[in-house]
């Protein structure tokens, strides 16, 4: 529908009075601009937003918000909420149990609808700004004309650019307080241009305003006769939004759910990320690569001949093609890539530091996979843009790191496609969103390393040894009795002609893992490597016994996932801290208590006891010998 704004039916008041449904329909077909305002506490953000809302004179938020919610529901049909949608994004964050302090406001003028995300300006709220900006088309960077370009201005601009916002408005505010002096304005614009160029911002729109007095907000002000550009509202109403340029890109749609109400209908529902799709178009389903053609484009309002980026639709194919939630439907001659190793920018949003090597859920579009992040290549100082060395990322830190996923994901670089290049990381145990990220590119080395098929299979190795491979994973506090009992278990198995190997924590730290210390990050890497070694040993048909404190549930779970089903046997050597400390075989508790030894499990580093281990040994109730007997009896029937 084209906006013929002179048509009286579009005049708000009359229309609302006459026909509310028609009014809402008109609004539904206007373009939407999502923008973010960035500024420090006193830059006048609230005043400006208040004025925009007031001047738009059309704050029928409730009806419109309800309409928004309805159209979303049409798109997602009560399935999981798409995190990429700005408003829904907030809901998703709430679901994930993170408190992000971003206020979203809705308003509309006769030309456009707007959602504005308002975020606090403090440095510690990088995560808020990133959340608010994640789907914005435009950022209004507010500057106090009396103060000029500040550290915060640089930080906000950097983040907005990083998030992929290509429309930047430099709103030089409080012009009334500098007597509308053009020289002051020009000086600020020049300073900003220098900085912006340096970080790759190609263009921005500077506007001298006074949010308080209303200068250059809805109309041009007589106080700034020297200013020849648009008023802020005019710019917001007319600037070309990404949704428009997204239509020119190749077609991509992530499948949110498979719509199969009866045997005669099978459609794939989702929101078009980029491009245009028409009935008859050849398409490709990824990652499978299967092709077909579009037979129908179904919406609640009826079938369409074509649909474009931003629309929520259901596609039917001419052929029976396997396609499920998480798959991506794309133009068949120009599909996106799949890969499992990437370089990415990561914005860390959790209070606990990132743990390189720890498995997190990675959610990208409608795909969810397991991912591990390597130690960052560098961290960015968001105030100076300097690159700093980093071992991990803490709350609000931004860094660049390689990451790998447990299976191939369909993606595009974030710079080309925010929907298929932007992701979040979720803690597997707490379910909290811990990071947002942007994929840069896939690592070529991943494409050149293939799994080599070997003729002597793992079954063959196991049969030759006449046994079933397994990993007996001992976990427990230092001094709990892991090494003692593991040693007895191995002796018993050896006497029964079983082929075993005992991997002991201290021993492995003398060789394979001698480069690792006892920080959380090093402990995670320690367990990851031992897990990989244990896995190779089960492939060789061995019964592997490991004795590592392995304090974190997440890593023990990671190792469990590496193994064949049923081969991982978690053995909790359950000794109360007081008993382990009283034994203090190696004198380590004494050192830890005196502060001589840092990061000691149970003292100043946590131990997360298994919730549901295959075997639990209470060493206060039996001797080491009895414990070993019980364990062997469990695995050798
Ligand atoms: P870890 O390997 O868990 O750090 P160790 O096996 O090195 O622990 O040390 C455990 C100590 O506790 C040993 O000196 C062992 O003799 C003693 N101990 C006392 N009772 C038991 C028991 N029931 N099971 C295992 N060890 C016990």
TrEMBL record:
Enzyme class: transferase
Enzymatic reactions: adenosine 5'-phosphosulfate + ATP = 3'-phosphoadenylyl sulfate + ADP + H(+); sulfate + ATP + H(+) = adenosine 5'-phosphosulfate + diphosphate
Record EC number: 2.7.7.4, 2.7.1.25
GO biological process: hydrogen sulfide biosynthetic process; sulfate assimilation
Residues at the catalytic site: 550
Residue numbers binding ATP: 476-483
Domain of life, source organism: Bacteria
Key words, A-Z: ATP-binding, GTP-binding, Kinase, Multifunctional enzyme, Nodulation, Nucleotide-binding, Nucleotidyltransferase, Phosphoprotein, Transferase
Annotated GTP binding sites: 39-46, 118-122, 173-176
Coiled-coil regions listed in the entry: none
Pathway(s): Sulfur metabolism; hydrogen sulfide biosynthesis; sulfite from sulfate: step 1/3; Sulfur metabolism; hydrogen sulfide biosynthesis; sulfite from sulfate: step 2/3
Family matches, as Pfam families: APS_kinase (PF01583), GTP-eEF1A_C (PF22594), GTP_EFTU (PF00009)
Assembly, per entry: Heterodimer composed of CysD, the smaller subunit, and CysN.
Function in brief: With CysD forms the ATP sulfurylase (ATPS) that catalyzes the adenylation of sulfate producing adenosine 5'-phosphosulfate (APS) and diphosphate, the first enzymatic step in sulfur assimilation pathway. APS synthesis involves the formation of a high-energy phosphoric-sulfuric acid anhydride bond driven by GTP hydrolysis by CysN coupled to ATP hydrolysis by CysD. APS kinase catalyzes the synthesis of activated sulfate.
Family stated for the protein in its record: In the N-terminal section; belongs to the TRAFAC class translation factor GTPase superfamily. Classic translation factor GTPase family. CysN/NodQ subfamily. In the C-terminal section; belongs to the APS kinase family.
Protein name: Multifunctional fusion protein
Name of the gene: cysC
